[in-house]
Amino acid sequence: MIDEEGRFTYVNDEFVKLVGYDRETIFGNTPSLIKDEEAVEQAEHQLGRLLSSDGPETLTFEVTVYPREGDPIVCEDQMGVLPYGGDQFNGSVGTLRDVTQRKKREQELQELKNQYETLVKNFPDGAVFLINTDLEYVRAGGRELGNIGLPPDDIEGRKSHDLFPEDIANELCHYYEETLNGNASTFGQEYGGRQYRIQTAPVRTNNNEIEYVMAVSQNVTEEVENKRELERQNERLEGFASIVSHDLRNPLQVAIGRLELIREECESDHIEGVAQALDRIGALIEDLLTLAREGEKIDEPEPVGLADIAKDSWQTVGTGQAALETNVSQVVKADQSRLQQLFENLYRNAVEHNDENVTVSVGTVENGFYVADTGTGIPGSDREEIFEAGYSTNEEGTGFGLRIVEQIASTYEWEITVAESEQGGTRFEFTGLELVE
Fold first, then answer.
1. What superfamily would CATH give domain 302-431?
2. 104-219 sits in which CATH class?
3. Would you put residue 387 in left (φ > 0), alpha (ψ -120 to 50) or beta?
4. Which of 67, 300, 328, 365 has its CA 20 to 30 A from that of 249?
């Protein structure tokens, strides 16, 4: 209670506790004891409204109170004037209610709303939901809602069982409850002929209490269909690999054995031609088996020295009069068998497509290595096609060697660049390697 001169004349125990001053200090003081200048002026303005002829009986407004100790307190001030007769003003009366927590809560909700709106804006091809502890949708947004015929206004204020078939609603509620218990979830759901990946996360307030679930739904129908198609392709490839490995390789071995018997029994100019044809069939089978493993899970990568693998691979390829020069020292994380296949196919490509005296060099580039030769090179117009299966400029080549190289590099997400070497031949650069220090 404040008199006509604006000084405290009465306060209750709760007021004393709120401001932290004793009554002796409060009585006789003005509200400037606990308010700043702006708040005092605001109160005087509100009092003027109350005293006007058409003014209300009471006014409620927010004010910040500064207690003797501690942080400022946001309060709700309800003000009225004391009864008086004639023109005599007797003072005013007011009640203060601490609304600090409510204001913090409002701020938290506004921040949450801003975060939600930002997420919806930047996630246009999905849907985002905010669910409260009653499992009620309080916010919904995203372009995908229009695709399934559920605008936000039809969702907000309702629960899953009001919107979806019982089996879907039960599953959603199960994960929402798990999330409210602090367990984020990721699960798949089918609705309206579409496949969705749904991720949920708990939303905590500043006091670390979980009050909402944020659910993000993404249409992954195309991804799921692609995965299923890939599984079907892998099944077909497994069948193909089985045919190549057994039904073709076994008769080939029989033919090679019979040819050796023929060599012993007679001489013919045709025998060598048959042998070359059988060797070509064998090379085709090996390349086809390698390609059939495209996308197959590789062994756990391990440190492999490029210098050693480059030299070892050279020994396993029929290089004739060709020469190898190495100036590489990096150690890379890779599957040794696959990396050897890569080098072998690059060497074979250099030897088969150039003169017998070709020199192949292996060297270092930033974050990678190169394999170059002194041959005739690859025309710029053909460099986009060389990694396609079946492409070859050599009648005796299988056309799969560089496709295998590209497939292995792709497995490790290495980048391949094809250019002209310093000697006019071909240079393959591989970058983006995971090097071991």
1. Histidine kinase-like ATPase, C-terminal domain (3.30.565.10)
2. alpha beta
3. alpha
4. 300
Q: Are 137 and 131 in contact (CB under 8 A)?
A: yes
Residue 13 is given by DSSP the state H
21, 23, 27, 32: CA torsion to nearest 10: 10
Give Cα 324 to chain centroid, integer Å.
Answer: 43
The kind and range of the H/E element at 93 are strand 92-98
Handedness of CA 98, 104, 105, 106 (dihedral sign): positive
CATH of 13-98, one of 3.30.450.20, 2.60.40.10, 3.30.390.10, 3.40.50.620: 3.30.450.20
Name which of 12, 86, 89, 85 is nearest 50 in CA terms: 89
Note the pLDDT tens digit of each residue in 256-272: 888 888 888 888 888 88
Does residue 397 carry a pLDDT above 70? Answer: no
CA dist 230 and 296 (Å) reads: 11
**Three-state secondary structure call for residue 37:** helix
Q: How many Å apart are CA 139 and CA 87, to the nearest integer?
A: 54
Give the tokens for residue 201: 């996360």
Integer Cα distance of 374 and 376 in angstroms = 7
Query: Do 371 and 428 contact (CB within 8 A), yes or no?
Result: yes
pLDDT digits (tens, 9 = 90+) for 301-335: 899 999 999 998 898 787 888 999 999 999 999 98
Residue reference for tokens 């050897």: 340
How many Cβ atoms from other residues are within 10 Å of residue 338's Cβ? 21
Place of tokens 């400022």: 72
The residue-averaged pLDDT of 353-376 equals: 91
Alpha helices in 203-353 (DSSP H): 221-242, 249-265, 270-292, 306-315, 336-352
